[in-house]
């Protein structure tokens, strides 16, 4: 028998995977054999913040299951349109904290670069759904004002590439940025916050790995994985390749109602991360962003869940339970 090689031959490039993503609620609902009654609300909510989800990620979902934990993260729902008191469009005070185009400098020693507003996926709970990236991305002037700012403050030792998703930027442009950052003597560490290894694992290209390996920086990649079902074999392979390039891997996730707000799901996630040598770093409470209130897990409930995790897992597999309070000098811990 001729072995099936189509999965190998047909793996699209990362650009193709993004270009082929589902953007139509109707197509996604059809493909997953879901109840068509979901469609009108999905369409209405998608007008505010578009549906976007690559096919590989959709293929990890269970067909016919409207409660699938991966589906819930990406399917627009009518609940998003209900205005909720206490939920805003800039919940973490980002707009007040930008000292230069695309730079957020809220914490001592580290500055965050909003490299792009683009993402491979639109996560419904994301504060990005309201962020005015057109005015705020550091790439607008080819990083110049962001780089000037980093140069001007010798207390900054770590630069965090964030977004959107910094790995939406082509390797050649990233290489330019890396070189400019390397030339700033007081920078010691590079951190990349990205969901791409989880959503489009083929983004971890040979060129990108080579560039990471070449740099003088010690590099930390913080992935964003909310559920063990997201760690497919392709994702694990991408993570292994990052490790082999000397990258330290951490995970941050968001505590989301119906997705990962139970003890067993959290344990499975931590254990699956351990299997691929990724350390759980942060478990974020939801930012109170307008349109995402239906994902909210209350503080007390989160703390109860957290106590159970502490009882069940070794300390190094328990992420820190945190949230972001505008004006604070660090993330605020709920773990005490
Ligand atoms: C979360 C965040 C960081 C990183 O905080 P760590 O505790 O170092 O992970 C840095 N800058 C900004 C603006 C942030 O929101
Ligand atoms: S990948 Fe991250 S930044 Fe992009 S939509 Fe999802 S949560 Fe938001």
How is the main sheet built? Answer: 9 strands, mixed
CATH architecture of the largest domain: Alpha-Beta Barrel
**Helicity range of the residues?**
25-40%
Q: Which regions are unreliable across 5 or more consecutive residues at pLDDT < 50?
A: 1-6
Bound small molecules, which ones?
Answer: pyridoxal-5'-phosphate, iron/sulfur cluster
Strand content: 5-15%
Strand order of the largest sheet: 1-2-3-4-5-6-7-8-9
Order of helices and strands: HHHHHHEEHHEHEHHEHEHEHEE
Class by helix and strand content?
Answer: alpha/beta
Work out the number of β strands: 9
What would you say this structure looks like, in words?
With 336 residues, the chain is an alpha/beta fold. It folds into two domains: 13-81, no CATH class; 95-333, TIM Barrel, CATH 3.20.20. 33% of the residues lie in helices and 14% in strands. It has helices spanning 6-9, 14-19, 25-31, 39-48, 55-58, 71-74, 133-136, 144-152, 171-182, 196-199, 206-214, 233-244, 263-275, 299-312; strands at 103-107, 110-114, 158-162, 189-194, 218-224, 248-254, 279-284, 320-323, 332-333. The protein has a nine-stranded mixed β-sheet. The radius of gyration is 20 Å and the shape is globular. The model is unreliable at 1-6 (pLDDT under 50). It binds pyridoxal-5'-phosphate and iron/sulfur cluster (SF4). Residues 119, 121-123, 126, 128, 163-165, 195, 224 line the site of iron/sulfur cluster (SF4). The site of iron/sulfur cluster has 11 residues, from loops.
